Amino acid sequence: MESPADISTLEKHWPGLDDADHEQAQQLLDELWLEILALYPDLPERIDDGKISPELVALVMHRVVRRALQPQAEGTEGITQLTQGTGPFTQTLQFEGRDGVVFLKKRERQLLATGRADTSQVFSVMPRRGEAW
Predict the structure, then answer these.
(1) Exposed, middle or buried by CB within 10 Å (0-12, 13-18, 19+), for 10?
(2) Each residue's pLDDT tens digit, 28-61
(3) Is 61 exposed, middle or buried (0-12, 13-18, 19+ CB in 10 A)?
């Protein structure tokens, strides 16, 4: 199955994409599609069965590639966590990597799992009375 996202769909999602970035964007889309197929091998089947729309998969891919291609942010942009304290002095900063690497955030993984069988249900099995384990 071919990737549901390409340069033309990315340009619709991100009209500000520079022409100079088209080749790199296409490469990132290709790499991301391979990574998604490795993580979700049943995805083409779910698309064909109508359990997940190709537009949703393309949206996730567009968001990931856009995040990878955006330049480094200045100031406190790009910080995902900031912890400060006063005594005895604590400060923690956690930065979001924007070095051209494609990665799926938790919400994007949840979106790509749409239409999968729900394996999160809890159940228990009780032995019958009088039977040995």
Answers:
(1) buried
(2) 999 999 999 999 999 999 999 999 999 999 999 9
(3) buried
- The H-assigned helical ranges of the chain are 7-13, 22-39, 43-48, 54-69, 106-112
CB 98 within 8 A of CB 71: yes
Q: What are phi and psi of 58, to 5 degrees?
A: -65, -40
Coil, strand or helix: which one is 95? strand
CA 117 to chain centre: 19
Prediction pTM value: 0.70
State both tokens at 30: 């290709």
Look up residue 32 and give its two tokens: 């991301």
- Cα separation, 99 vs 65, in Å, equals 11
d(CA 3, CA 124): 40
